[in-house]
Amino acid sequence: MEYNHILIRYGEIGLKGKNRKMFIERLFKNIKVAVKAFPNVKPTMTRDRLFIELNGEDHEAIATKLEKVFGIHSFSLAVKVESDIEEIKKAALSALLNVGKPVNTFKVSAKRPNKTFPVRSQEMNYEVGSYILRNTENITVDVHNPDIDMKVEVRDAFTYITCGDYKGAGGLPVGVGGKVMVMLSGGIDSPVAAYLAMKRGVRIEAIHFHSPPFTSERAKQKVEDLTSVLTEYGGKIKLHVVHFTEIQKMIHQTMPANYSMTIMRRMMLRIAEEIANVNNAKAITTGESLGQVASQTLDSMYTINEVTNMPIIRPLITMDKIEIMDISRKIGTYDISIRPYEDCCTVFLPSAPKTKPKRENANRYEQNAEFEALLKEAVNNVETIEITNETKVEDQQFEDLF
């Protein structure tokens, strides 16, 4: 008997009390979108489990999709049989023999959510384990460190048997937590911040500051490519490209060099807040890590934050660069991020930026230049691009969901 289902387990969703149903329904919809390219699968939903009936589809390809769906704690290939002890024993033996790797030891861990089933969990462990031992050679039971921890779940009329788990993405389903605007520079950090924000259940839109001719079209394409990778985790994403050249030139010409980075970040935040308000986003997310560069010291963030009352979410704030790079490689953005194209944050970079800027100084310097008209022009001329991943069917479904 071959594996015919995938059993999906929730994690944090189980703690959501009266909102639990809403979270599960969102996860179910996101899973349906993720496996939409497999026409024969049939997802179903229960109170504490989701199931995908495979109907002959490639389970490894489906597993690759499920690993990117936030809200899944773990999932397993499963054999579904009628809740009959003799059928369960035969299916358990078949599942063990089809596990796809050498097996020397195993144990059986039975659960009985269906309390009307006449065989208790401990008794079922013994019955199933004994049957496997009688029908195999050179395989023994090890309850402490088995090669295979076989789980048997007796649920209503049917029982599911699994022999191993895939780790899920964890977090909360994208779409349950509102929307945030991510400042996406094109470096290593900001895509990771976007990924971690989505992991907490929010949808994202992205803002990129583009400064031609100082930054190239290749730098812009790099950000589009990064956004495309992020769509694998959250569906279609709007990328707002802000033409920032004139503001950067004004900063370079009129501001003290050591404050130019601080002033630039304050201008970016003002623009991001405007775009967030227009697009109904409730927070701004950045890839800042405390102490990484001059604009990310505590004093700098205090001075830069002054220009907005919108919440600033900084998922990377306590991480070091190695941790951030590890996540970047894991989610598939690292190789794109290290392409050698300048972004606007490196244009006119001062040799000695202020690491402890003061709000009163920043305010005084900004009064010496007419930024308001340039800020308004930048917001009014934003170029918005809808980025999708390569599977068009999925994109349409995310559009329907969100």
Automatic annotation (TrEMBL):
<dbReference type="InterPro" id="IPR050102">
    <property type="entry name" value="tRNA_sulfurtransferase_ThiI"/>
</dbReference>
<feature type="domain" description="THUMP">
    <location>
        <begin position="60"/>
        <end position="165"/>
    </location>
</feature>
<protein>
    <recommendedName>
        <fullName>Probable tRNA sulfurtransferase</fullName>
        <ecNumber>2.8.1.4</ecNumber>
    </recommendedName>
</protein>
<comment type="similarity">
    <text>Belongs to the ThiI family.</text>
</comment>
<comment type="pathway">
    <text>Cofactor biosynthesis; thiamine diphosphate biosynthesis.</text>
</comment>
<keyword id="KW-0784">Thiamine biosynthesis</keyword>
<keyword id="KW-0820">tRNA-binding</keyword>
<feature type="binding site">
    <location>
        <position position="296"/>
    </location>
    <ligand>
        <name>ATP</name>
    </ligand>
</feature>
<feature type="binding site">
    <location>
        <position position="265"/>
    </location>
    <ligand>
        <name>ATP</name>
    </ligand>
</feature>
<dbReference type="GO" id="GO:0140741">
    <property type="term" value="F:tRNA-uracil-4 sulfurtransferase activity"/>
</dbReference>
<dbReference type="GO" id="GO:0000049">
    <property type="term" value="F:tRNA binding"/>
</dbReference>
<dbReference type="InterPro" id="IPR014729">
    <property type="entry name" value="Rossmann-like_a/b/a_fold"/>
</dbReference>
<dbReference type="GO" id="GO:0004810">
    <property type="term" value="F:CCA tRNA nucleotidyltransferase activity"/>
</dbReference>
<keyword id="KW-0547">Nucleotide-binding</keyword>
<dbReference type="Pfam" id="PF22025">
    <property type="entry name" value="ThiI_fer"/>
</dbReference>
<dbReference type="GO" id="GO:0002937">
    <property type="term" value="P:tRNA 4-thiouridine biosynthesis"/>
</dbReference>
<dbReference type="Pfam" id="PF02926">
    <property type="entry name" value="THUMP"/>
</dbReference>
<keyword id="KW-0067">ATP-binding</keyword>
<dbReference type="InterPro" id="IPR049961">
    <property type="entry name" value="ThiI_N"/>
</dbReference>
<dbReference type="InterPro" id="IPR004114">
    <property type="entry name" value="THUMP_dom"/>
</dbReference>
<dbReference type="GO" id="GO:0005524">
    <property type="term" value="F:ATP binding"/>
</dbReference>
<dbReference type="Pfam" id="PF02568">
    <property type="entry name" value="ThiI"/>
</dbReference>
<dbReference type="InterPro" id="IPR054173">
    <property type="entry name" value="ThiI_fer"/>
</dbReference>
<feature type="binding site">
    <location>
        <begin position="208"/>
        <end position="209"/>
    </location>
    <ligand>
        <name>ATP</name>
    </ligand>
</feature>
<feature type="binding site">
    <location>
        <begin position="183"/>
        <end position="184"/>
    </location>
    <ligand>
        <name>ATP</name>
    </ligand>
</feature>
<dbReference type="GO" id="GO:0052837">
    <property type="term" value="P:thiazole biosynthetic process"/>
</dbReference>
<dbReference type="InterPro" id="IPR049962">
    <property type="entry name" value="THUMP_ThiI"/>
</dbReference>
<keyword id="KW-0963">Cytoplasm</keyword>
<comment type="function">
    <text>Catalyzes the ATP-dependent transfer of a sulfur to tRNA to produce 4-thiouridine in position 8 of tRNAs, which functions as a near-UV photosensor. Also catalyzes the transfer of sulfur to the sulfur carrier protein ThiS, forming ThiS-thiocarboxylate. This is a step in the synthesis of thiazole, in the thiamine biosynthesis pathway. The sulfur is donated as persulfide by IscS.</text>
</comment>
<feature type="binding site">
    <location>
        <position position="287"/>
    </location>
    <ligand>
        <name>ATP</name>
    </ligand>
</feature>
<dbReference type="InterPro" id="IPR003720">
    <property type="entry name" value="tRNA_STrfase"/>
</dbReference>
<keyword id="KW-0694">RNA-binding</keyword>
<keyword id="KW-0808">Transferase</keyword>
<dbReference type="GO" id="GO:0005829">
    <property type="term" value="C:cytosol"/>
</dbReference>
<dbReference type="GO" id="GO:0009229">
    <property type="term" value="P:thiamine diphosphate biosynthetic process"/>
</dbReference>
<dbReference type="InterPro" id="IPR020536">
    <property type="entry name" value="ThiI_AANH"/>
</dbReference>
<dbReference type="GO" id="GO:0009228">
    <property type="term" value="P:thiamine biosynthetic process"/>
</dbReference>
